[in-house]
Write a structure and sequence with these properties.
The protein is an alpha/beta fold. The chain has 18 helices and 14 strands. Helix 3 crosses helix 4 and helix 5 crosses helix 9. The protein binds pyridoxal-5'-phosphate.
Length: 434
């Protein structure tokens, strides 16, 4: 399959290059030349297939002949090794739990698939690759975990000292092996600057092959399409004949873009909801037709604190920049922190279900949309992370707390190992060359 750049539709690369380059040389984002349909029969018969079989059939449409079937299915079986279960709370509300992976957030799907795919493409090249990631939390832990023990690839994660949650720090610093955690005395922006400087440093080139596992990599989006189909399969038993809506807690719009892929492949989703916290750039675009990036503001659903969503370019490209059409497919609204906390409380009281702050924003937007519609529908809210990752929110604002899953508790007991560096590039460079 060929991929083009959103900045230039005549610039084409192979799937392999799209994966290994991440961002196009002209700084555009890669999109597949065609979004292939899955057959009607396959979609009607989803219940006959396992999550892994569904995933394979979707992946194959994006990869085509660049990875042989046997190897592709091996990649899927290793990457998609946990479930994405639907929990039905009422006739009109279902929760799609995307936190059953090792770092308890949906980013595990993308990071694990990308890691295995890169491993496949690098395996015959007998060169070592070093992936640099700067993180303020979730991305670093998912990438580090996804690439753990992957042959030929080392990962260096830079995080700002004292500025990621205790749980996130443990998830990054206790892995060992091919994963190195660097604690930078500085801010997230300092970490990002060190990484960006290293990428353009010509003196490093002869000594070290640097790569990135950035969230704009198409290899992280493709596997997010899998769970739209998988959840649709589970819903079919419950919701025959009702319209099905997906509510997506949105930041960089990766999850939403993957949902749009699923719809274009033939999955009959009648509406998407892009739920924003106070960072309402996308909601403003949908409702007012103007796209105005802003500085991000901190909120309780911090993985959605994004002022210039990176996948925006993909969404407008998928719909030929037709705002009217985009606004017909996607409803969007923004919510405050206090509304978020109230929603968490209400869901716990009504359903005895503990939702995390991101999922709560998704529930708020779904409820508003459903209230505005005459026809009955079933809404699926993507629960993007496990609530236990946000214990500070529960401690500060709520009088109940989620229990900590075992796989998280296990990493809390392990010993942390970090390399402490200042925010000076000279020091970081010496480390990379050592
Ligand atoms: C990354 C993340 C989001 C935002 O997803 P996008 O694909 O960037 O829109 C939402 N919730 C959680 C918990 C996340 O980690």
């Amino acid at each position: 399959m060929k991929y083009y750049s959103t900045n230039n539709h005549n610039y084409h690369v192979s799937f392999r290059e799209a994966i290994l380059e991440g961002l196009a040389k002209d700084k555009g984002l890669f999109l597949p030349e065609r979004i292939n349909n899955l057959s009607h029969d396959f979609i009607n018969d989803l219940h006959k297939y396992s999550f892994q079989e569904i995933s394979f059939n979707i992946a194959e449409k994006f990869v085509e002949d660049e990875i042989p079937n046997l190897e592709l299915s091996d990649i899927i079986n290793k990457a998609i090794s946990f479930e994405a279960p639907i929990k039905t709370l009422s006739e009109s509300l279902a929760i799609l739990e995307l936190f059953h992976g090792p770092t308890l957030a949906f980013k595990d799907f993308g990071a694990r698939f990308l890691a295995r795919t890169m491993e496949y493409f690098l395996k015959n090249e007998s060169k070592e690759v070093t992936i640099l990631v700067a993180t303020s939390g979730d991305t670093g832990s998912a990438v580090a975990n996804g690439f753990l023990n992957i042959e030929g690839i080392n990962v260096v994660v830079l995080f700002p000292s004292g500025k990621v949650s205790k749980i996130q720090e443990k998830q990054i610093t206790t892995l060992g092996n091919n994963i190195t955690a660097i604690e930078v005395k500085g801010t997230f922006d300092d970490c990002q600057k060190l990484v960006k400087t290293a990428f353009v440093d010509k003196e490093l080139k002869p000594h070290i092959n640097l790569s990135s596992a950035n969230s704009i990599n198409i290899g992280r989006l493709i596997p997010q399409t899998f769970y739209y189909f998988e959840s649709f399969k589970q819903l079919k038993n419950i919701a025959v004949k009702k319209e099905i809506i997906y509510s997506v807690p949105s930041g960089n719009l990766g999850n939403l873009t993957a949902g749009l892929f699923a719809k274009k492949m033939g999955l009959p989703i009648s509406k998407f909801i892009a739920a924003n916290n106070k960072n309402d750039v996308f909601a403003n675009y949908i409702n007012k037709g103007m796209y105005q990036p802003q500085a991000s503001e901190e909120s309780l659903s911090n993985a959605m604190d994004v002022g210039a969503p990176s996948n925006f370019a993909r969404i407008v490209d998928l719909y030929d920049n037709n705002h009217k059409e985009i606004a017909e497919v996607i409803f969007s609204k923004s919510y405050s922190d206090s509304e978020t906390v109230e929603k968490i409380k209400e869901i716990q009281e009504r359903f005895e279900y503990i939702i995390d702050p991101h999922g709560a924003v998704g529930c708020l937007a779904l409820e508003d949309y459903q209230a505005s519609q005459k026809s009955e529908s079933i809404g699926v809210v993507l629960e993007t992370a496990h609530p236990a990752k946000f214990d500070d929110v529960f401690n500060r604002f709520l009088n109940f707390e989620p229990s900590i899953p075992e796989r998280l508790a296990a990493s809390l007991d392990k010993e942390s190992k970090t390399i402490k560096l200042s925010n000076s590039y000279k020091e970081f460079k010496e480390y990379l060359l050592s």
